[in-house]
């Protein structure tokens, strides 16, 4: 181990080469180039192989990170992929979009000692991309078919992770989704500069080839009833995510040119697929030539500001009520946005909108951070007499998401929900108040990270398998 590993003292941390801001700001290609084999091995060799791997502990999937870093450093890439795939259904996706700076890399022991974290996410991406290129990603082939069927509502990360795991055990799986493409936010919510769509489509093809049935453009409650799905399957998993946008209820909020973040991002991604998007063609969801103000400070806000830059906005500003240190979005994404020309207006909160028929500006006020709340974060407070206006022709609200009222939309009787509208489910088995009905991902925990949805989907799949007679759920490895 000492020969190949523990190089963090002599070898500095390096990320894959990042495309120049002037170049990448004009297209939706991923901004990081691929590691070369020697560079991946070099960076993996910086791992200290510590006795208590906090990177693994703070990964929601508890990936065996030190093990596949060591294998990568030794040039045993196929084995590294097998170890990575054993705990993560979609490692090539997590390697691209997980906020590693807040999870595994942020907990790295050598980072805490001042040597700079291991570039875990970049190595994970390299391992899996290499596996696809070399043909190491084997088709899903259950050892034996089982007669039981499972219906999954929602083709997002939770639903797809559960489908993958259940199919490997031999269950018959059908996925129902309202959209025309599988992937949920992976397809329509996350821009291509973070996750190129062929990466998701490749996994979708693998799942379809495995015998999973996809019923797309199928809106539960309209095209098929929830009870019909229950009657058709031995178990049902709800993995719909949360898509209802939070709105800023303030003077002028009904003006044209004020749009929800997800509508804006979906339109951009559809255009990337070559779809006809009237609201983009007529300029409603197109930032070209406009002064754009994005309200919010999470990862969705970062996706919006960087998309607006690529669409040719005249200027892009992001209003956030706290300071940079308290930004909920990834600091890496903030830095990328700044490089590309986004201006952050810290400690500012919107109070309303100006305009006649269409928005012409966002009324805002300066904020100061006061006493800490129950979460430990300082509460923003208005600074008297500090009102100002940010001119804009497009205002994008990236204020988070809430669950839809599934009980009403689906006409479900007996499905318990929380006071926030999320589905109540057992935190271990993910079973809901309805027998044989499970729920996983954001529809249970609220808007969260893709990696948590993957974990929830896998756990729910294991619980469903146990209920249907599989005593020991299969491991997700190829």
TrEMBL record:
Residues 150-457 form the FAD/NAD(P)-binding domain. Pfam families: Fer4_20, Pyr_redox_2. NCBIfam families: gltD_gamma_fam. Residues 24-135 form the Dihydroprymidine dehydrogenase domain. SUPFAM superfamilies: alpha-helical ferredoxin, Nucleotide-binding domain. It comes from the Bacteria. Keywords: 4Fe-4S, Iron, Iron-sulfur, Metal-binding, Oxidoreductase. It comes from Paralimibaculum aggregatum. This is NAD(P)-dependent oxidoreductase.
